[in-house]
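Record 1 of the preview.
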Amino acid sequence: MDIARQSLAVVLVFALLWTALWFLRRKGKTGWTGRQTRLAPAQMEARGKLALTPRHSIHLVRVGDRNLILALHPDGVTFLGDALPVEDRQPKELAAT
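->
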């Protein structure tokens, strides 16, 4: 008799959880709808990495149409600057010798 009561309690809890999930999905309150959606093109892309030490590295990341240079270290991330695309760079003039 005790096993039947415990089994009924478990089934009731799962039924309540399923009902709550169904209700929240219907209202759009969860990030997951259960439907497959078409993904947008990648807005962020890793372009390159330079490992300085095992815990320090420099990354080149493309976000939209910008190329960012980021330094990763144990304390976090530091923005170093924008990188120009290769085709936008002006050739450097050689110093007259």
